[in-house]
Write a structure and sequence with these properties.
Length: 89
């Protein structure tokens, strides 16, 4: 798998996470379970794709986004841009 393929795969996973942002406190745990799977995949990248620091924060901050709408909007917009750059738009 090439670095471009890994980026597209990661972008697809991020898109799914973006589409399933927790709408309740009860949904945060399940979201983190899905995010953890992507974190493991990114950490074991064969091609060593350059993962922007913001992505790691996104994968760890669902509880903050749930509580802070402004933070959520800013972070989600930035992640959507990365997804687009990785070819996942």
């Amino acid at each position: 798998m090439s670095a471009a393929d890994e980026e597209k795969s990661a972008a697809a996973c991020l898109r799914m996470l973006l589409e399933s942002e927790p709408a309740s406190a009860e949904q945060v745990s399940a979201w983190y379970t899905r995010a953890e799977a992507l974190k493991r995949a990114l950490q074991s990248s064969i091609c060593g794709i350059d993962v922007p620091h913001l992505i790691w924060h996104y994968l760890d901050d669902a509880d903050i986004r749930f509580r802070d709408e402004s933070y959520a909007q800013d972070q989600i917009l930035a992640v959507e841009k990365i997804v687009e750059d990785w070819g996942g738009a």
